[in-house]
Specification:
Number of strands of chain A: 6
Structural class of chain B: mainly beta
Strand content of chain B: 35-45%
Largest sheet of chain A: 2 strands, antiparallel
Shape of chain A: globular
Order of helices and strands of chain B: EEEEEEEEEEEEEEEEEEEEEEEHHHEEE
Distance between the termini of chain B: 15 Å
Radius of gyration of chain B: 19 Å
Number of helices of chain B: 3
Helix content of chain B: under 10%
Helix content of chain A: 55-70%
Number of domains of chain A: 2
Oligomer: heterodimer
Strand order of the largest sheet of chain B: 1-26-25-24
Number of helices of chain A: 26
Distance between the termini of chain A: 19 Å
Largest interface: A-B, 39 and 54 residues
Largest sheet of chain B: 4 strands, antiparallel
Amino acid sequence: MMISNDTGLMAHLLRRAGFGATRDELEKYLALGYEGAVEVLLNPSEPNNMPDDLIRRYHVEQSELRDIAGSAAYWMYRMISTSCPLEEKTALFWHGLFATGYAKLNQARSLLNQVDMFRRSGMGSFEDLLVELSQDPAMIVWLDNIENHGSAINENFGRELLELFSMGIGNYTEDDIKECSRAFTGWTLGNAEYMSIRAAKDSIWPYGRIAWHFDYREEDHDDGEKTFLGETGNFNGEDIIAIIAKQESTAQFVATRLFQFFAADEVTEYGEKAIQAMMETYFSSGYQVRDMLRTLFHSDYFKSEEARYARVKNPVEMVVGAIRMAGSYQNPALGIENVSRNMLFMGQGLLQPPTVEGWHEGSEWIDSGALVERVNFVAKELSNVKSPGVRSIIDRLEAGSDAGILDPDELADGCLDLLGPIEVSEATRSVLVEYAARLGNLDLKDHLQGDLAEQRVGNMLRLVAATREYQLA
Amino acid sequence: MSTQTKSPGISLDYVKTIGIVNNGFNGRGFANPYDIIADDDGQIFVLNRCDPARASAIRIGICNLDDEYLGEFGRGNGSGDGQFNWAVAMALDSQGNLHITDEYNHRVTTYTTAGEYVSHWGTPGSEDGELNGPAGIAFDSADNLFVVDQHNSRVQKFSVDGTFIAKWGSSGSGDGKFNLPWGIAVDSDDNVYVADWRNDRIQKFSNDGKFIAVFGSSGQGEGQFQRPTSITVDLEGFIYVADWGNERVQVLAGDGSFQLLLKGEATLSKWADEYLASNPEEKAERDVSNLTPNLPAHLNTPYHTSSQTEPYFWGPVSLTLDNQGRLYVVETNRHRFQVYQKR
């Protein structure tokens, strides 16, 4: 099967900057050209996602957002239905990097407010993003800045800000952590003591949850002189973040993490060149994440064969990609919570990262025994010939055939094409063709919903979902 | 303290709050309530929509104004006799039976007010008498039953046992057309009012479906609505609207002119007091907290404000009046109802 360079590259871009693409979406982006497509992705407009009023009307649990299952499902709906996939992908990236989890917070609305903040600021200045993160109520509780007082510091947030959120270990001293922490004293939430007790007790009483907002307590802030990374002054949190943002190690950290999420699990010598270019963009653009991503998507590395299928899809990409392809859940429906649970079984529960270090990505997604869950979920979605996206695939197969007849090669190649296109090894392709040949040519002429001919397409799509290549992005 | 903005023709005084969240166990409290009715004997029925994860709390709870929890009935989550998947609304007929819509199962289920399951009726579809997502439900003085058939964009009129009588409406935004309509009410002259939910307006019809008037438009101003869910009309003709998307209640005069609005001013219910009395550490911090805080600009929407401001309505989905001129506003996300007295 020959895939044109343009089509293959665009499908590659949309697997990374989105959740893959239906053929309709792919054609829309192809019409823009590669550069135009990158700009549309980088500059999200109206997302046209499933509206909140509809979700709230039918899902009371997603209106209140008291518990984790409904709250994860609420974000799922957004990912499934958005027409601005990079906005959600970037939010997911920051959610994994600044990993904040429900278990300690018991406050899903505020966690989702954090995700809103990633949408709002996730492609802007990294410095501004760190300020917003430091003022984010969910983060303040998650890393105990609520316990960080002028009279007695708590270093947890200050430590992770430097180690896990920006510069990385080895680029600062223990004294820097202390001074950094002093600067964030008084950064807390409204009614902090009451909210802290409610979070610790998982209290929903008397009238359900009360969501959180940032509060700055000047009287609890240590306004004294601090020395941080060699600079001295009466620093507040914003001053510390300004110093962090200008460090070479921060540029290296942000560029590398973006690269690993959007380009390749492993950094090769060739990939290192893209990271260097992103670091240069970091400084020349005033720390703009959007510009760093533009540099990445236009890099020779990203467009190269080496970058193709160089990432293992994370469970969210697997699940959301399959649902978008199948076109299921276009309206609020019972069962969406089960979908978000499926992701948890695959090792990635939205809003439930295991620790502050986030998820261990790459090959660990499949090493963890979740492969069967991944294959089963996608197979079920893609073999449902009632789903509008699968019906569209069937219609396209028929339209592209000679009078509705597809030989085994055409059936296998057609499915690989319309699910990606996905480039598979010759061995994989042979298995697919052999399977198709068992029942001879496929006759899609006058097909009816759910008939044997349609089921044969569904079965082929199911088989493609089980290929190694489908597991990769 | 009242949150009314002005009161040229009507005044409402806050009386009390009843409720506490119920986490899916038997016993007092509410679980994402969706509708409320007060009968002439002082019993207050609260329809708990809840969700499948807490199936045992999908039921009708009964209490009174003295904060007594009198009992509950229901058979949990599902499509069996007496069960609900997505219960929406209730109406009380002249014989004292409760008729409850289920927009997932496309049917109306009848219970006695003593909690005995009677029957259910309804067939999915769009032909006369068939239902697609029944939502609001109301009786007129002759025990005719009106059901908002939301996905068929129409109102259907039935006898009390579900025999089809009439229908009106189609999809759209013109007079007499609907976009996912929800609540319905009948006034003392047997005129019918429909909360035309996604058109952000209230429409008034004669008893046989002739269009009479339309009130409201999209917005946050006085007399404007964001997804109104429920209506009730008092004997003087004042129209009370649950302005759900704006997290408030508005009262209009019979000609549709704006009269006043309520944002909610809930206080601790008796049940809430008892919870806090047994959790003194939580109570101590609550007592010194500001539960009506100023919020950052990015949280300045009705939904976010209510999610952070416990006394305000959050999800004021339905309202009803009793025979003493009391208004009951039930809140899905706060598991309680607030009571106001008309002066």
